[in-house]
Amino acid sequence: MLRSSVPRLASLSVGLSTCKFSTLQPAVTSSAEQFYAHLQNHGANFEKTLASIRAKIDPSCISKVLRRCSVDRSLLGLRFFIWAGTHSTYRHSGHMYRQACEIFWIHHNPGAILEVLESYRADECSVNLKTVKVVLNLCKEAKLADEAFWVLRRMGDFNLGADTVSYNVVIRLFCQKGDMATAGMLMREMGLVGLRPDMITFVEMIKGFCNVGELESACMLFQDMKEQGCIPNTVVFSTLLDGYCRSGSLERGLELLTEMEKGGGDCSPNVVTYTSVIQSFCNQGLVVKALAVLDRMINQGCPPNRVTVRALVDCLCAKGRLEEVDELIDKVVSCGSFSIADCNSSLIVSLIGLGKLEEAERRFIRMLSCKMRPDGMTCNMIIRELCSTGRPFDAFMLFREIEKAGCSAFIGSNAFSELLMGLTKLNHKEEAATLARLMLDRGIRLQAPYVDNVVKFLKNSEESVLIPELTKVGKPL
């Protein structure tokens, strides 16, 4: 079941008990230096004495120690990371788990997990449930289902029994892997060892069954959950409902949505629930039904979010029903969750994505004339799209209008570079010089792919004085 490590951790080649580390300067000041110095002078089972160090444990300190150990003492560094995670005054964040996995390449070297536990056994270290949970969380971050399973099975070697949290980590990993047979076996095993599946267990299992298309199994588990006295909440309902929608069982999804609305309380549908149904109807082109769900959503006091609106706008635009888009915008704005500028920006992005540039341009100009401020994505997209369709002069004129509206700060270096390239390519000398000087004044970078062509153009113009600055690729112009 387990994969072999590639390569083995460098620290194993010398062994913890015989490691000789380079010494630090006598004056140890920072927390990281204190811990690292201690690790250098203590071999096997160094965890026993680490607690004696009066130094602050924080992410910065831990990160520095890990990086120093990563060169040739990976096992030592991993054990320090695990020890720190069990400290009474500190708890690893998700970011720190990601960092540890990256520093020690655990994704590519899953055998590191096995080697850590084997080193604990060989050194006769004291291992508690907290220790194992940190190891399991490393497996979770690196998505190592087989290694997590192995850790679960080795807990008995340290006279430890797994708790519900430990089982949930391993079950989740197998669900993500799509191995529902192993996940189901572990869930049944929980009952045999005196543990009860909790809400997290059921959510992960139901999500796993839905992801592999086993909706009947998901429904059966949903019913079992209620029979066992574990009342489904919004997350459970939404997970099952999303499974129905993704499988195309939209009518069954609507029935479940109705059940949630009637249940209320902890079962009330939220924005994620409604959006899942709306997206599914939109994906099948059933925009009328999608809009009906939006009405239900608003009536339930649940305002739509950006994802909801974008799904509906995309669907209506694809069908050419632009008048209804305007009605949709009015409805969403009246809910108070979006400004009219946000909605129109989403509409323009959708139109550009569907290749309806003329309509997108018309609405963009209307926004500016109505004193509405389009967002950054919209400004950049329309400039770049006009350039890509051979209309850099129009893009430049539109940029001028964006400037007047006070939105030019939204324009990024890619859009500026493409616009300058387009102007030079079509020999718009005056506009190109104006834009180049503006970029220099604002410290905007000219992207590398465009430098040669722009410089070639400037050499043949009266603006060759700009070349020294424009050739500073990767530096502010």
Plain-language structure description:
The chain has 477 residues and is mainly alpha-helical. Among the domains are: 1-161, no CATH class; 412-477, no CATH class. Helices cover 65% and strands 0% of the residues. The chain has 26 helices and no strands. Helix 19 (340-353) runs antiparallel to helix 20. The chain is flat. The chain starts with 30 loop residues before the first helix and ends in a 7-residue tail after the last helix. The model is unreliable at 4-28 and 473-477 (pLDDT under 50). InterPro entries: PPR_rpt, TPR-like_helical_dom_sf. PPR repeats lie at residues 163-197, 198-232, 233-267, 270-304, 375-409. This is Pentatricopeptide repeat-containing protein At5g47360-like. It comes from Punica granatum (Pomegranate).
